[in-house]
Amino acid sequence: LSVDNRKDLWHPTIIPYAGTGLLLFEKMREDLSRTTDIFMTDITNPDYELAASITNRFHFSRLLDATRGPDGSIHLLFESKSGNDQQNLFHGIYDPVDQTLTDVSQVAEGLRLAAMGRLEVTASNEIFVFWFENYGYSGSYQMGIHWTKSTETGWQAPQLLTSSTQQQQTGNWMNRQFAWYIFDTEVMDDGRVMLVYIEDSYLTQCI
Fold first, then answer.
1. Contacts of 196 (CB under 8 A, 6+ apart)
2. What CA–CA distance (Å, rounded) separates 167 from 39?
3. Does pTM top 0.85 for this prediction?
4. Low-confidence spans in the chain with pLDDT less than 70
5. Which of 92, 121, 123, 172 could form a disulfide with 69 if both were Cys (CB 3.0 to 4.6 A apart)?
6. Nearest C-alpha neighbor of 62 from the set 50, 54, 74, 72
């Protein structure tokens, strides 16, 4: 890739596409002050200035994860604000030819503060979303890893998977953001979705 030294570029993510690939990344929008969006460019010949803005929202948008479904469609999980100005998680399908984001839906109710997220699409087109709820907001949601999946009528009610993850007062060592590396997911060959995560009780750690 070419080198771009501007400090507003963030979270590069590669999506295989058309024999080469697409590069998704975040940067500040030029048409809206202090607003971050997700952008797309060709990975073989990236153009950061002319990259296509994906969400085009009036609020910030932050990429949490991206993956390709079994039919080749590109699924995005991102954080932004809803119509009532509450921060939340959204899923959408991106068409790189038309450069449009369609079928956008809010993944969970209420206000959500996600430190990281994972998106999985199975061979049967089931969509699973996992995220680490960081600190919560006014005690509304418990800190930990939550998950949900798509249904024919929307998204099922989120469930808390971990109850004692206490990861995040240690973020200064080598400037690492530990909350971004607390878990990972993968779809197995038999269709199961596997989750691995760090459990931290301040006294012991385990995976």
1. 183, 184, 185, 207
2. 30
3. no
4. 1-8, 31-34, 58, 83, 135-141, 163-181, 200-207
5. 121
6. 54
